[in-house]
Amino acid sequence: MQLTNSPVTRTPPTSSNGRRSPLPGETVVAVQDLEVVLGSTTALTGATTTIHQGEAVALMGANGSGKSTMLRAILNLVPHRGRVELFGTPHHKFRDWHRIGFVPQHSDPALQRATVREVVSTGRLARRRAFAMVSRSERRLVGELIDLVGLTGRERWEMSELSGGQQQRARIARALATEPDFLVLDEPLVGLDLSSQRRLAHLLRRLKGEGLAMLVVLHELGPLGPLMDRAIVLDHGHLVHDGEVPNRDDRAAQLATGEVSIHAECKEHIHSHDHHHEHDTEEVETGTGPGLVDNPWIGERR
Fold this sequence. Notes:
- The protein is an alpha/beta fold.
- The chain has 2 domains: 27-260, 3-Layer(aba) Sandwich (Rossmann fold); 261-302.
- 28% of the residues lie in helices and 22% in strands.
- A hairpin with a 2-residue loop joins strand 9 and strand 10.
- Helix 2 packs across helix 3 (136-148) and helix 2 packs parallel to helix 4.
- It is globular and about 45 Å long.
- The two termini are 25 Å apart.
């Protein structure tokens, strides 16, 4: 898939800070001009990016920036416009959903009475033929995954009996049960104490070392920062950074945490122009005068 040029500056990640550069290989996700309209609101517009095999990408932005919307569009969970390819296959033709493991931010309330083993076992449904019995190898795999995420001895515990961090690890084990090539996590650090965050970082580091591609929605990097090869930053539904993981004082980092907003700055710029040209009221009201500026981040959304 050939992607068109984007107004976003894209810089190749380096390994000077210890992060491994992306592995060459298959394109896992290719997105071009992605747009999501929810009701009368454009939640995401013009997003273009790619994710490759073995690459860990942080999807960042302030609350309401469009992070989860973009993730759900990539997974074909919300209506959208634009082009999305998964493993080189367009959305409408893609059938190998078992190649993608999705870890939602919250547990399904319907699973709170299910045991850890039962929850992890549901991840095998995408791989199993209809009405097929659970095989010995599947039971062994589920046990190995429970051990991998550090829940050995809690197989028979109900999800409601686990801590937030333990529930998160059980959801990751369920996602891994599909034997995915691409792991997607929505705000995995929310509600976790620092110790649980570090355990999660250790687990994801091991998975990344095995070549698993990852897209991780984050508000702040926390202990997952060293794992990320690249960061995508959204601001009010616009992709404004795609490249190096931002340092704390970078403008991209300020956009990611909501300290600054290109959208808000543009609105302030328009307001100052409006005030300066109050005597041109007629021109401003018609939308043709100097009170409106030609800027890609403002104006009427499609």
